[in-house]
Amino acid sequence: MTATIIDGKAFAAGLRTRIAAQVATFTESAGRAPGLAVVLVGEDAASAVYVRNKGKATQGAGMISIEHRLAADVAQDELLALVDTLNADSAIDGILVQLPLPGHIDERAVTTRIDPDKDVDGFHPVNAGRLATGIAGFVPCTPLGCVMLLKDTLGDLTGLDAVVIGRSNIVGKPMAQLLIAESCTVTVAHSRTRDLSTVVKRADIVIAAVGRPEMVKGDWLKPGATVIDVGINRTEAGLVGDVDFAGAMSVAGAVTPVPGGVGPMTIACLLRNTLVSAARREGVVLDEAAL
Ligand code: GUN
Q1: Which residue has the least CA distance to atom 8 on ligand 1?
Q2: Which regions of the chain are under pLDDT 70?
Q3: Is the CATH number 3.40.50.720 carried by domain 141-263?
Q4: What is the CATH number that goes with domain 29-116?
Q5: What pLDDT shows up at residue 272?
């Protein structure tokens, strides 16, 4: 048996097109385009690529992208002052400070400084609490993209067994919350989980978000399972995910590739969150079901 490859790149392109259509409606109604501010501190090469791609996609959807680049040795207070300025700027609907930050800066101090109603990354504890309690807020982009791909692949997720491997604040924990909200039975596994392969074996849905190249093997999977690979690992053999793709393809029902799976969805969901933020702030009603 060969699994279906879940084409995140194509799904993300369609989503960006639907977003662009509603950006045009918003701009007509509000008299301005949605604005996203992206802050990059230092010269990390991977972060610079992500920020450039975010800026291009933002403009491609008809939104305004404003980039702030700060030196790697910038004082924390200076970064916090920039966040304050962006919080107060009525033309800015979304604020994203690219992580990781240099070691002398307290990431928590920065993410908690962002106005929760402009927190399009969904990293602020207020948005984590809203997600956990079912209040509308902002959901972190990567897990939001994963759940969109799952629903596109499987339809209704009610009652399915889901195993999330990884417990980070950015992916694992919000992913678990979203799957609970979809009425899955959710297990969160992590580096201290005993007998991980047995835990994974019962899952209809596997979300791999551990950052270990090809850790999840094909023979760990339940036949027909849907596998979402959040990993992006640079190895000598090139870019690989957290799942042994070839092994998974011979057992699973559907698998996301790396690259071309989850990655493009993260950026599309950032655009979605920015548009939703702009609409909430201006009182413009969107067709959220189409997003
Ligand atoms: N670094 C890696 N992924 C992300 C993300 O989704 N948002 C931010 N702000 N930084 C990141």
Answers
A1: 98
A2: none
A3: yes
A4: 3.40.50.10860
A5: 98
